[in-house]
Amino acid sequence: MDVTLRSGVKFHSGDTLVAQDVAYTLSRCTNSPLCSALVGAMEVTVTDDTHLTLSFPGTGAGAGFHELMPYIQGMCIVNESYCETIISDPNEDLGLNVDGTGSYMLESVSDNGDVTLTRFADAWAPATIETIYLKYITGSQETAFEAGDLDYAMYGATNYEIIKEYDNVLTQEQVLNNVVFLILNCVEGQPTADQNVRDAIAHCLSIEDIAAIASSDAGTPAYNIATPLVEYYADVAEHVTVDVEAANALMTEAGYSESNPLPIRLIVVSSYPDWVSACEVIKEQLEQSYFSVTIEQVADTSRYFIQDFDIAMLGVGLTTQFNSYAQLYDDSTGLNLAGANDADVQAAFAAMTDEATTQAAMKAATESRAYIPIYYPTTFFAFDANVNPGPYYTQFSAFMYRDFSWK
Questions:
Q1: Is 0.70 surpassed by the pTM of this model?
Q2: How far is residue 159's CA from residue 295's CA, in Å, rounded to a whole number?
Q3: Which residues contact 268 (CB under 8 A, 6 or more apart)?
Q4: Which of 3, 31, 119, 241 is most buried, judging by how many CB atoms fall within 10 Å of its CB?
């Protein structure tokens, strides 16, 4: 596939984006949770600064351009010459040292965490708003809206009901392309690698109760690892009902009993207090059967990537194409947090060609219980009534605005 880059695209540093930057970006994808699927599946040949060729060695095996498009869309191009001043190895993490091409540049970060962005005049599609201030609000957001100090804010479910009553504020809510789930460690030799144990766990859990606590009543209970924004989504996976007797039978078959319960380490990121509270409920529900649960709060997600847990709570946002979810079940991708290696699930993903086979893959993946879906998050937005936010455009677990202006 021959590709011509748009001429004159500038990075914030002033450098011009060239074809070699695309090739360099691909070389950085090895450790990318989203784009590692492109490594070995797509090759870039640079012709000159604005022309390159993309080739796909696995086209005949279902890994052509169209199948890989969700990953290609996620491959944000970086500036090679800029990166080489920051890192010595393409696999190193850039952190916040990013030379973007977007409509806004980072101007400053204050001591209290306020961030100032300024319009990038040389952007391909320059913005109309000159400066954006992201502020920590120490008082109430309602007071800030009334004072004219706030144009846009994200709300929790409780405060959202309050701000909806304000005449000077417009509100909007949106389900995100994101799912919060429990990860069950499927690495061979681990107790939760046993399908009976995973099924028993599912029979202990009241998804509705856990979702309500984990999302502060702002999420929709989930019964599919795919989100409702995924193409061909359907509620096809089994809704497992709470059945402690069934859980006990499964645990007995796995070799456990009331006098010999299975010890479980449940990890959760401490910065999500609602998730921590939900894990207390999960512990209580699991211990109705033959489990003994210890909750461990962690500061970051490093343990998730080395499967140092039995069960873990986390959220992920992938693309609106369900084939992107195959990363969660393929140990070569870097995003197989469960360490799952289920041939039936992988075969279901490989067979995806249309609505029926996509839904079959959703069902197989979800019912493997490598990941037990909990809820789909909803985000609540409030705007000054004089603001026109324009339409939303989905991008992974976030939303973008194409038009944001004052009436």
A1: yes
A2: 29
A3: 275, 276, 279, 295, 296, 297, 298, 312, 313
A4: 119
